[in-house]
Amino acid sequence: MxxxxxxxxxxxxxxxxxxxxxxxxxxxxxxxxRWGSLTLGALSDGSLRFNELRRRIDGVSEKMLSQTLxxxxxxxxxxxxxxxxxxxxxxxxxxxxxxxxxxxxxxLIHFLEGRMDEVxxxxxxxxxxxxxx
Length: 133
Fold this sequence. Notes:
The chain is mostly helical. It has one domain (15-130): Arc Repressor Mutant, subunit A (Orthogonal Bundle), CATH 1.10.10. It has seven helices and three strands. A three-stranded antiparallel β-sheet has the order 1-3-2. It is globular. The termini are far apart. Residues 22-120 form the HTH hxlR-type domain. Keywords: DNA-binding, Transcription, Transcription regulation. GO terms for molecular function: DNA binding.
């Protein structure tokens, strides 16, 4: 599909993330925000309990992880399953839609990880010419 065909296909979609009031914009923010993308990536390997997920995503606070999981669950990307045990056990896993989104995100994540030498070199050149800020 060439660029002109892609643009025509985009125009036929019922939602437009570039429109201020489009509901897809909120979901895009949940998915591409730091904690959302890391949460989806971490869950791509399988179901995790809250504390396992928190340990996997180095640096996320309990509050931020909880808010992120709620947002992703509301968007239909994450499934929260509470087990009736004592103490209670809660597992989080990706829904089929969540798996599809995570697969696309992981492609971008792996691409960036593989190109970090170029990014770091560009940052170094930028900092040398413009001064570190």
